[in-house]
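Researcher: Here's the sequence for the chain we discussed earlier.
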Amino acid sequence: MKKIAFQGRRGAYSESAAYYLFGNDIEVVPMDTFEEIFQGIETGAVDGGAIPIENSTAGSIYDNYDLLYKWRHPIVAEVKLQISHSLCVLPGTKLEDLREVLSHPQGLAQCSRFFGRNSNIKSTAFYDTAGSAEEVARRGDKTVGAIASAYAGKFYGLEILAEGIENLPGVNFTRFYAIQKTAAELPEYGRANADADCEKLAQANSENEQKPQKLAQANFVNIAFANSAPVIKTTLLFMLKDSGKSGTLYAALGCFAKRGLNLTRIESRPHPDRPWEYIFYISFEGSPKDAIVVEALQELQSYSDFVYRLGSFVEGKTVKLGAGWTSSP
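Model: Thanks. This is the structure I predict for it:
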């Protein structure tokens, strides 16, 4: 059974992500920090990890971008979880009793409007959402609450005073990556293959334009091919060779634009050893097995000090956790 690490305590959103990313037949291993996950993978103490990388309302989790650069563990999968925050309190606690609410900084940021409406309640950063629920249960103080998942609250014997207190209910999502020591195998059928098949079918359409029945059949198959092909995403990091030269970043990103490769994410982080130099992270739709991707990466090399592919994987699903979720999907 694989050991899969996540940051936080039992009941954390990352625990749920671990099951969706690696399957039910795993042993989850809670860890206190994100770096411990990377260290555990490196030493073999765990087989993989589930890490959050960005939230749709609060933005990027920069610690994990920096750790991906430092450790270079391959990204092998992703999932987008819909996040719903609950106000968890000791049994019998009322809203007017609260003076302090604990949660992870991301959780607090995602619920900032709650604190705006309740200015008498202090927001206090804690290392983990589920850990904040555990801490409230440990303290036994009715003036202290936690923002966590409803499952985490119930796991630690708390009551749910309010649900869905995030700033934008229903549109709060977090993207999680699965990381491990070795890269994942990719399906042979990528977007380039789909495009090639569609081109062949389009040619068949043209040849059969005088034959309505065959044309309709060809169009149907064309749509089927386009819709059934899995979308492969690739994530890489690079550093510009001459960042002081005007238009260098524009030219580097043009390697993808001129080939019709859709960029889905771009992020920059300060280089740890070179002041005012930056490492760029990009994600795009395309497989390293596709010829146009190979061409784009080769051209990118000419503008970069280095290019490193962090991973290629099938585009992740968007998942809404059910109210009855316990330990696995």
